Amino acid sequence: MRVLITRHASAAMKLATILDAEGFKIQLEPLLDIQFNRRPISLENVQAMIVTSANGAAALAQSTDERSLTVLAVGGDYRF
Questions:
Q1: What CA–CA distance (Å, rounded) separates 63 from 80?
Q2: What 3-state DSSP class applies to 70?
Q3: Domain spans of the chain?
Q4: How far apart are CA 61 and CA 12, in angstroms?
Q5: ∠ CA 1-9-27, rounded to 5°
Q6: Distance of CA 41 to the CA centre of its chain
Q7: pLDDT for 24-42, tens place per residue?
């Protein structure tokens, strides 16, 4: 079976690796290009952070070295 993957490039490659191992024929056609605005963020007076996607969590992790704040998210347990 042939599978068309339209997710952004890094997510597409991860999924393609999994599906390829299962015997699927893969066609990659990413429709998005995720680019993070890498700049420091101020966390002064912040008690917790909310992220709404794995991309949001990755962007947050790249924007600060702070690792003691609570982060609320929907989904799996990710480590960045």
A1: 12
A2: strand
A3: 1-34, 40-80
A4: 21
A5: 20
A6: 19
A7: 999 999 998 888 887 888 8
